[in-house]
Specification:
Largest sheet of chain B: 7 strands, mixed
Number of domains of chain B: 1
Structural class of chain B: alpha+beta
Distance between the termini of chain B: 55 Å
Order of helices and strands of chain B: HHHHEEHHEHEEEHEHEH
Helix content of chain A: 40-55%
Strand order of the largest sheet of chain A: 1-2-3-4-5-6-7-11-10
Number of strands of chain B: 8
Oligomer: heterodimer
Strand content of chain B: 15-25%
Strand order of the largest sheet of chain B: 1-2-3-7-4-5-6
Pfam family, one (chain B): DUF3726
Number of helices of chain A: 23
Strand content of chain A: 5-15%
Helix content of chain B: 40-55%
Number of strands of chain A: 11
Number of helices of chain B: 10
Structural class of chain A: alpha+beta
Keywords (chain A): Coiled coil
C-alpha cells in the first residue's frame, strides 16, 4: 500500500465499493478469480520475463514409483519442483490434512538440487509433517489421485485411445493437492528470505509455482504409466485435453482462520481488487478493444460456469444464479455502452439486477480488459505485518472508542445475548491440531476459544473502554486489561486498513466457513469451487491455463 | 528455576539443537504463552519478541519458557525514571516489555533521558521491545546492566560474553538511555538453535490451548466424512 502507484491515477471516491458492502461473508463467499489472482500474477511474470522450463530428472519405475525434478529458470534465479511418486494402497488414500501417506509428495527447492539434496529430500518430503525440510526449500505439498479419472486416463492411453471428454470434464484434474505449505513451515525458508525477490514478493508465488509445476507432473505420470502398461501402442495425452485439466485441491477448515488472522494482508488483497475495480468504473469511455476483451472474458466465464459442477445445495443454487446472471449480462451488453461512464453504468445495473454471485462474477469480467490499468496493483498485495505490529499506547480511550464506532459499527450492533449470535466457537482440536468449530451451548472447550470472533472481541473492548476516563491512555488500559490487547491492536490498524475485517459475526449460528474459504481461494485463482460440506471444499487450479513447457516454447519463439 | 537454567545452559553454551524457522518459532511461542495463561495479545508480543531474537541469531525459546512456565504477571508501576513492581517481586518481562513498546513515544519524552527498569525476570526478553522503542523514536537505546553495556537499535550490539551473561541472567535491573548512535545490524550468519527439551516443554504448554476430541466433535467439527477414493 505504500507504493505510489496504488493511488495513481487518483480515482474519485464515488467509484469505490464500501467495506460494508465488500467485506460481508455472503459477498466474499461469491468471489471469483480475476487478473490479480496470484496464479495469474505468476503466469504474467513468467511470460513477460521469458522464463524457461525443463525436467532434468525423471527417475520413475514401471509402477510409477520414483522421483523427478522440474526446473523453472527465471532471469536471475531458478526454482525446482522435486516430486516423489509413490504407490499408495487405496485404503490409505485420504484428503484429510491428517493423512500419513499420499500418491505423490513435493517440495519447491530454491535453486537446482544436487543428488545429495535429492537424497536428503527423499528421506523427508514423503513424510510431509513428520519430516524436516530446510531454508533451501520454499514449500512442502502432497497430492492424491482422482482415482476415477486417473485410472480412466491411464487405461485409455494404454490402449492407444484418448480419454472420454465427459469424464475429463466431470472431474477436471488428475490429482488434487491436500495441503501446500510455505512460509517457514516444517523448517522451510521464512517469508522474509524471499519477500525481497521481485518474482516471489507477491503473495503465495512460491506455492503457485509449485502447483503449476505439479500440474505438469500429473500429465507426465499418466503418460508414463500408460506407456508402462500399454507399451508401444500407448498414446500420449492430447494437448487440448491437458489444457482442460487443472490441479485439484481439497481444503478443510484449517484455511478459514487465515483471513481473520492476517487483517493487514487481507486488506491489501481486497484493496488492490477494489482499487482496480474503481479505476475501471471511473473510465469515461469504452474502446473497441476493451469491449471485445470484455465479451471474450464473458465467454470464458460462461465456459467456466458450464463445466462447474457441485452437488452441495448452496452451491447448486449459486450456480443456477450464476448461469442465469451471465445470460442477463450477455443480453445487457448487446446494447452497451449506452451511458456516460459506461463501466460504472454497467456495474450499477448489475447491483440492481443480479444476484451477489453474478455481481462478483461481473467484477472479475470487468477487470479483464484492463491489464495496463490495473496489473501493477499486484505489487501492492503483500504486507509487512511486523512493521505495523506495535500498539500505540499513547492513544486515548476516547480515540479508541471513536475508532470502534466508525469501523466496527457492524460488530457493536450484534446482540450476543441471543443464542443465534454466539452459537459457534472456534477451537483447535487436541487430537488433530487443526481448527474446528463447536457448538457453544452443547460442547466442551469454550474456555479454550480461539480469538476469531472479532465482532464479539470488538464489542467486549468497547464495553470495557466505556468504563474508563476518556483521556486515559491505551497503554494504561492494557496494563489493567491485557485480555483486550489483541483487539486493541486490530482496532488501531483499522483506520488505515478499511478492508481488514470480515464484517460479519464469525460465531453466529448461520456463519458458513466455506464463505471465507471461497474468498481466499478466489484470490489464489481457484475455479470450480465445490463444497463437500459447509466446512470443506474442492477446487481446481490452473484449469485452462498453459503449461510451463508451453511458456518455454513461446520464449524460444 | 533449576529446570529453566538447565534449558538455558543447553542453548547458551552447547551449540546443539534444532534449527526452527522464524515462523515455527513464533507459532510455537504464541501458543505456548497463551497455554501458560497469558492473554492472546501478550502471546502475540511473546511470539514477536522471540522471533526478533531468532532473526538476530539469538535463541529466545529457553528464556521464554523460563519466563512463562511459572507465570508472574507483575506489571510495572511507572514513574518517569523508574519502573518497578508494586510488591517488590521481579517484573514479568512480557508485560513490562509490552508496556515499554506501548509507551515508546513517551518513555524518553519528559525531561529525563534515563529509565531504570527492574528487577525484571529473563531480561533478555526485553531486548525486542527495546528495539521496538528504538525504531519508534528512530534512534538507539543503550542498556547498562551491572557495569556492562548493550546497544539496541534494529539489532543488538555488544560483546559475546555480555550477551551470554545477559541470556543466563534470571533477574536483572537495567538502566535505559537514549542514544543517537544509529548502527547497521551485523548480518552475522548466526542461527538460533533451540534445545529439543525446550521445544518439548513449549509444545506441552501449547497443547493446553487445544480441546480434547469427543465423539460429537469428531463427527461434526471438521465436516468431513465422505470417501476420498473418488
Amino acid at each position: 500500500m505504500e507504493q505510489a502507484n496504488m493511488h495513481a491515477p487518483t480515482t474519485p471516491a464515488e467509484f469505490y465499493r464500501n467495506p460494508d458492502q465488500v467485506m460481508r461473508l455472503s459477498r466474499m463467499g461469491s468471489a471469483h478469480p480475476m487478473r490479480l489472482s496470484f496464479l495469474r500474477v505468476l503466469m504474467r511474470r513468467v511470460e513477460a520475463e521469458g522464463w524457461v522450463f525443463d525436467r532434468p530428472v525423471w527417475d520413475v519405475d514401471a509402477k510409477g514409483v520414483g522421483r523427478a525434478v522440474y526446473c523453472a529458470r527465471g532471469p536471475v534465479r531458478t526454482y525446482s519442483l522435486v516430486a516423489f511418486a509413490h504407490d499408495l494402497p487405496p485404503e490409505m488414500r485420504s484428503d484429510r490434512v491428517i493423512a500419513t501417506a499420499w500418491d505423490a509428495t513435493f517440495t519447491l527447492f530454491d535453486g537446482v538440487p544436487s543428488s545429495d539434496d535429492l537424497d536428503r529430500l527423499q528421506a523427508n518430503v514423503p513424510y510431509q509433517e513428520a519430516g524436516r525440510i530446510t531454508e533451501r526449500e520454499l514449500s512442502l505439498s502432497r497430492a492424491n489421485r482422482s482415482v476415477r479419472l486417473f485410472e480412466h486416463v491411464v487405461d485409455a492411453l494404454a490402449q492407444g485411445a484418448q480419454p472420454d471428454i465427459e469424464e475429463i470434464e466431470a472431474v477436471g484434474y488428475l490429482m488434487r493437492t491436500t495441503a501446500v505449505y510455505g512460509s517457514g513451515k516444517f523448517g522451510a525458508a521464512d517469508r522474509a528470505t524471499i519477500a525481497e525477490r521481485p518474482e516471489l514478493s507477491a503473495p503465495f508465488q512460491a506455492e503457485m509455482l509449485s502447483v503449476w509445476l505439479t500440474r505438469w507432473f500429473t500429465i507426465d505420470i499418466v503418460n508414463h504409466l500408460a506407456r508402462s502398461k500399454g507399451g508401444e501402442r500407448a498414446a500420449t495425452l492430447d494437448m487440448d485435453i491437458c489444457r482442460r485439466l487443472g490441479v485439484g485441491n481439497s481444503t478443510g477448515l484449517g484455511m478459514a482462520p487465515f483471513l481473520v488472522r492476517h487483517p493487514i494482508l487481507i486488506n491489501n488483497w481486497m484493496f488492490a481488487r477494489e482499487e482496480a475495480f474503481a479505476r475501471v468504473r471511473s473510465l469515461a469511455a469504452v474502446t473497441e478493444q476493451a469491449k471485445s476483451d470484455l465479451l471474450a472474458a464473458l465467454e470464458a466465464a460462461n465456459e467456466n460456469a458450464r463445466t462447474w459442477k457441485s452437488e452441495h445445495p448452496i452451491q447448486v443454487t449459486k450456480l443456477d444464479d450464476l448461469r442465469r446472471d451471465l445470460a442477463l449480462i450477455k443480453a445487457h451488453l448487446a446494447d452497451w455502452p449506452n451511458a456516460d461512464h459506461p463501466w460504472n453504468a454497467l456495474w450499477l445495473w448489475a447491483e440492481n439486477t443480479l444476484s451477489t454471485e453474478g455481481q462478483e462474477a461481473l467484477v472479475s469480467i470487468m477487470l479483464e480488459p484492463h491489464g495496463d490499468l490495473i496489473d501493477g496493483l499486484a505489487d501492492c498485495m503483500s504486507a509487512d505485518e511486523r512493521a505495523q505490529f506495535r500498539i500505540d499506547g499513547a492513544q486515548t480511550v476516547q480515540a479508541q472508542l471513536d475508532i470502534l464506532q466508525e469501523h466496527y459499527a457492524w460488530a457493536l450492533n450484534v446482540d450476543f445475548d441471543q443464542e443465534d449470535q454466539s452459537a459457534q466457537f472456534w477451537y483447535v482440536s487436541e487430537e488433530k491440531l487443526e481448527p474446528r468449530l463447536g457448538n457453544r451451548f452443547a460442547e466442551e472447550g469454550v474456555d479454550l476459544e480461539q480469538p476469531l470472533g472479532v465482532a464479539h472481541l470488538a464489542k467486549s473492548l468497547y464495553k470495557a473502554l466505556q468504563a474508563w476516563p476518556p483521556s486515559a491512555r491505551a497503554g494504561e488500559f492494557l496494563l489493567a486489561h491485557p485480555e483486550h490487547r489483541l483487539m486493541v491492536r486490530r482496532a488501531q490498524q483499522a483506520p488505515k486498513h478499511p478492508y481488514a475485517e470480515v464484517r460479519d459475526n464469525l460465531i453466529a449460528r448461520d456463519m458458513l466457513p466455506i464463505d471465507l474459504m471461497r474468498c481466499k481461494l478466489a484470490f489464489f485463482g481457484a475455479t470450480h469451487f465445490d463444497p463437500r460440506s459447509d466446512k470443506w471444499v474442492r477446487i481446481s487450479l490452473f484449469s485452462g491455463a498453459p503449461y510451463p513447457f508451453e511458456m518455454s516454447a513461446r520464449g524460444v519463439a | 528455576m533449576s529446570e529453566a537454567t538447565e534449558f538455558m545452559s543447553a542453548t547458551a553454551h552447547a551449540p546443539v539443537g534444532v534449527r526452527l524457522s522464524r515462523t515455527e518459532t513464533e507459532t510455537l511461542c504464541f501458543k505456548a504463552t497463551r497455554g501458560a495463561g497469558y492473554s492472546w495479545g501478550i502471546a502475540e508480543e511473546a511470539a514477536n519478541a522471540v522471533g526478533w531474537l531468532h532473526a538476530n541469531g539469538i535463541d529466545g525459546t529457553a528464556v521464554l519458557l523460563a519466563a512463562i512456565v511459572a507465570p508472574t504477571f507483575n506489571a510495572p508501576v511507572m514513574s518517569n525514571v523508574f519502573w518497578v513492581s508494586s510488591d517488590g517481586k521481579p517484573l514479568c518481562p512480557l508485560t513490562t516489555g509490552a508496556a515499554l513498546s506501548d509507551f515508546a513515544t513517551s518513555v524518553f519524552a519528559s525531561s529525563n533521558d534515563h529509565l531504570k527498569v527492574g528487577a525484571v525476570r529473563q531480561p533478555v526478553l526485553l531486548l525486542p521491545f527495546i528495539a521496538q522503542c528504538a525504531a519508534t523514536i528512530v534512534g538507539s537505546i543503550a542498556i547498562e546492566w551491572e557495569g556492562r553495556n548493550l546497544m539496541v537499535g534494529n539489532s543488538v550490539k555488544t560483546d559475546a560474553e555480555t550477551l551470554s551473561a545477559f541470556l543466563s541472567a534470571s533477574v536483572a535491573t537495567i538502566t535505559l538511555s537514549l542514544s543517537s548512535d544509529l548502527f547497521e545490524p551485523d548480518r552475522a550468519s548466526l542461527f538460533a538453535l533451540a534445545s529439543p527439551h525446550t521445544i518439548t516443554a513449549l509444545d506441552a504448554l501449547a497443547m493446553r490451548t487445544t480441546v480434547p476430541a469427543t465423539e460429537q466433535s469428531r463427527n461434526s467439527g471438521a465436516g468431513a466424512g465422505t470417501s476420498d477414493n473418488d
